[in-house]
Specification:
Largest sheet: 6 strands, mixed
Helix content: 55-70%
Radius of gyration: 32 Å
Structural class: mainly alpha
Bound molecules: zinc ion
Number of strands: 6
Length: 650
């Protein structure tokens, strides 16, 4: 019996090996027949090598290669080296040894070495091999260049990449090679030269789906969706991958409406979808927060065989989407319906609960998760810590924070510290929060100081507020919200001198402020957009009337405009006018116009909701008997019967 490892499992493979062992038939054999036999042997060895999965097997096959007189056969040895590379055998060990024994390596064997070094590094060794090959007078093949381009792209080494490009021109004959063109394009794109990538694309005499898709993805990555869509329009053979690149590209560039449009078109032309497409469109829908689309996408996912019970990736994305669309209950239904759950599904649900202020549910789910094999990750802890914060569970939060590294090997990041500062700050332990920041092993980021400043607003502590604000002014020089917060804190404490100084800065910076924008999703799924002070909506005058009437009713209930929410030196009338134009108020008035009594109103907002609007929403939920849900850039606010789920802390 021959000594091949039992891991080469199939009977077929054993019979191959046995046939290699059979001595050649004696007597006379014509030369052509010998050649044929040799070719056959080479192919057998290559095919056996192809199935090898461990080093010992490859070494055994190498033994056979040598004993069969093929120790100089570059074709077979190139395959052997490629297999060694695949299982990560270091290039300068066995592969080098094999290569060194060949007197005249052919271009494929050279390329196997170049490719091996390209994959494992160092890149310089890969280039060295190329130089040696050229010095020996061996001409490269297209795989040589594609390996080098891939390596330069991975190492982001543009200089070398350009030199390799120059080589393809110098040697000639590669201008029309599709494989070389595609990897060259990819190299330029990876190195950040999109224009050069485009030039390569334009000059390619032949292009395939990969060439087109690579460039579309590159445009999307650079945020140039206009060029991506122009290119896509001109692409004659749009396949699922190209469509997905468009959907995902728009989603990643914060253009959820367009992402959904492309997904819709994809459906219209009968294009199939896979998990990648679905995750892209689900994330777009989560950004938009539109429930109607959420249900539509879920249906499609289920029909394509990627529903929550089949795909844990899609299921987890759906949980996140429903949470962000303001429907934590629907998210939980998805979670419950999943056959398989992983850390992402649990984490999405925990974060979803936390986002909606359902602290106890989040913690309960966390403890359920710990009973399984699944271990929490960084994001899970963000979820549970912020859940503790919302639910005012200070002691639990402290314990979890203390245990996360020790028991779960998750080292606290600045985001976790921000959660803890929020938790302590909310509970009024401002000194403890400040002390925690001072003991941080890394530099605190704006989120950490922002949480502390927010807490100072609630508990009225201008001293600590000033410390936090000073840090924030440095970290976020354009963050006007910090100046407004500090100014309001100082105003409450009667520090008028500071207030007037701050107002001056706010006025100067105010011109650069991102305009406030809110979206309202109507019953048929249509989305209306409102900018602050916007009068361009077709029903603008009705909206203004409806808002005036609502505010009149609220005034009767004791509402007074919170003029300190307007950080400019203006007359009170002017301040009132600005407050009335806040985009979420316009969206609310419009929602009241076009929904029925008893309907829940959901509004999305791009910035943090101001105190005046928050008050108006609270009061409106009581006066109109409506449930109002607002998603601002920080969290969800569920307004119901005069109170908000955030407990007036956000
Ligand atoms: Zn407002
Ligand atoms: Zn709230």
């Amino acid at each position: 019996m021959i000594g091949l490892s039992r891991n080469l499992s199939t009977v077929a493979k054993h019979s191959y090996i046995r046939s290699l062992q059979t001595p050649a038939t004696p007597n006379f054999i014509p030369f052509s027949q010998l050649q044929q036999q040799r070719k056959l042997l080479e192919w057998r060895l290559i095919s056996i090598l192809h199935d090898c999965t461990v080093f010992s097997q490859i070494k055994q096959v190498h033994g056979h290669i040598v004993s069969n007189g093929l120790s100089q056969c570059s074709y077979v040895l190139a395959k052997l080296i490629r297999m060694l590379t695949r299982i990560d055998v270091p290039m300068d060990s066995y592969p080098c040894l094999v290569f060194g024994q060949v007197n005249y390596p052919n271009p494929f064997l050279w390329t196997a070495m170049i490719r091996g070094y390209a994959l494992q590094g160092p890149l310089s060794e890969s280039i060295n091999m190329y130089t040696r090959m050229r010095r020996d007078g061996v001409s490269p093949v297209s795989f040589t260049f594609s390996a080098l381009f891939k390596a330069c792209g991975a190492a982001l080494n543009l200089d070398l990449g350009k030199q390799v490009h120059a080589q393809t021109i110098l040697i000639g004959g590669f201008a029309s090679d599709l494989y070389v063109g595609n990897t060259m394009l990819d190299m330029y794109v990876k190195c950040g030269l999109l224009g050069c990538g485009r030039k390569v694309f334009d000059e390619m005499s032949e292009r395939d789906v990969i060439s087109w898709t690579q460039l579309i993805v590159a445009y999307a990555k650079f945020g140039d969706m206009e060029s991506a869509s122009d290119l896509f329009d001109g692409f004659p053979l749009k396949d699922m991958v190209a469509w997905t690149a468009m959907v995902t590209g728009y989603a990643q560039n914060a253009k959820p409406k367009e992402a959904l449009e492309y997904f819709q078109k994809m459906q219209d032309v009968g294009m199939e979808t896979d998990e990648v497409t679905l995750v892209g469109v689900i994330s777009a829908c989560a950004q938009l927060g539109a429930v109607k689309y959420a249900n539509w996408i879920r249906d499609i996912a289920e029909r394509s065989g990627f529903g929550p019970s089949e795909s844990v990736v899609v299921g987890s994305a759906l949980i996140d989407m429903y949470s962000k669309c303001g429907s934590p209950d629907e998210a939980y239904k998805v979670f419950e319906g999943m056959k398989e759950r992983n850390v992402f599904s649990y984490t999405s649900m925990i974060v979803g609960y936390a986002m909606h202020g359902r602290g106890p549910s989040a913690l309960q789910l966390f403890h359920e998760m710990l009973k399984t094999e699944i271990r929490p990750n960084e994001v899970t802890f963000i979820g549970v810590l912020s859940a503790c914060s919302h639910a005012g569970l200070v002691e639990q939060g402290r314990q979890l924070f203390a245990r996360m590294e020790k028991f779960f090997c998750v080292a606290p990041s600045p985001d976790h510290y921000a959660c803890m500062v929020d938790l302590l700050g909310r509970a009024g332990c401002l000194d403890e929060a400040l002390e925690l920041i001072e003991t941080m092993p890394m530099e605190p980021h704006a989120g950490v100081w922002g949480a502390l400043l927010g807490a100072c607003r609630i508990h009225g502590n201008p001293g600590i507020a000033q410390i936090a604000a000073n840090q924030l002014f440095e970290l976020e020089p354009d963050g006007i919200g910090n100046y407004i917060l500090l100014s309001n804190i100082c105003a409450s404490a009667g520090r008028w001198e500071e207030v007037s100084k701050l107002r001056k800065v706010i006025r100067e910076k105010g011109s650069k402020k991102t305009p406030g924008c809110s979206w309202f999703e109507g019953k048929k799924g249509e989305i209306d957009e409102f900018f602050a002070g916007d009068t361009t909506h077709p029903r603008s005058s009705e909206i203004t009337q409806a808002l005036k009437q609502l505010l009149k009713r609220l005034r009767a209930h004791g509402y007074k405009p919170n003029l300190s929410s307007v950080p400019y030196d203006l007359s009170d009338d002017e301040k009132e006018r600005i407050l009335m134009g806040h985009s979420e108020k316009l969206a609310l008035a419009y929602a009241l116009l076009c929904t029925d009594a008893g309907d829940t109103i959901k509004i999305m907002k791009n910035l943090r909701i101001c105190e005046d609007c928050h008050y108006v929403m609270c009061a409106a939920s009581e006066v109109t008997g409506r449930e109002i849900i607002i998603r601002d850039n920080m969290r969800f606010h569920h307004f119901h019967n005069g109170t908000c789920s955030c407990g007036n802390f956000w």
